[in-house]
Amino acid sequence: MRRATLPVTPAAQLDQRAAAQAWLVDQLWGEEAVGILGGEPKCCKSLFALHLALAVASGRPMLERYAVSAPGPVLFYAAEDAEHIVADRIRRIAAGAGVTLTNLPLAFITTPTLRLDSQSDLDALDATVAQEKPRLLILDPFVRLHRKDENQAGDIAPILAALRAIQRQHHCAILVAHHARKGGGNVRAGQALRGSSEFHAWGDCNCFLRWRQRELILSVEHRAAPPPDDLVLALRQNDNSLQIHIVDHAAAATATSTPVPTPAARILACLQASPVPLTREQLRQAVGMRNQTIGQVLNDLCARRQIVRRDHGYHLNPVAA
Length: 321
What we know:
This protein has 321 residues and is an alpha/beta fold. The longest helix has 18 residues.
């Protein structure tokens, strides 16, 4: 009996596509690309995903800068937020972008649970994608979509492979929101993702959000295209609108060459600028440090006799060298 073979195509007959990356959202997300939207908790990942969904569905530029050349349907599963919270957010994002939700091809999967490690749930997701025909499927966040060990490649790889199969079968892009490890800001963004390295390796396009002091930074990487410079983002909101916008496109690009003041230097500068001694709490609020961190830095500065502690607060040591 002749054994079954795999399909083989000569190089000259392979699918002819443009040499340049085809974009779903210019420079940010590729057409039919899978990938991760990563970041520590409270880094606006869900808000960013909703902004991206609205941009693709409406054709409005993402972040008011990155064009959507071929808008189309978007399918979104928000596993973590209640339906009324999602409804309020998308209404305010749409208002800020000047988009009407009526007849907008943006739909939300509203099942209470979706488990990507369950074959029946995967089959249901596949059938839903086949029915809705989205250009973009967003799943947020990954941690709520399975019961496997995220640190084990053998547990995670089959789930990501199943999502890749859905992407190839239905020719849609897929974005999965996923948490980064706490304190991972000093390593390459993709390497800071929580769990197995399979997450980083899987993505054709990956976006990473992180806080740098009080600035929100977006970093992007692509498998087959150069990334844009890092972006500094900010949240602008009121009762009626909610927008993530670009603050300064060039600032983040030069961040690596701009020295960041050490915690000790920030405290010394704060004390130098103050005409009166400052308490620990006043210093903590002024420099924006965690309580444990500022305690360690203050103890170290006192031990080095750069500052002096009195009953009414801390001040610079006038006799310090």
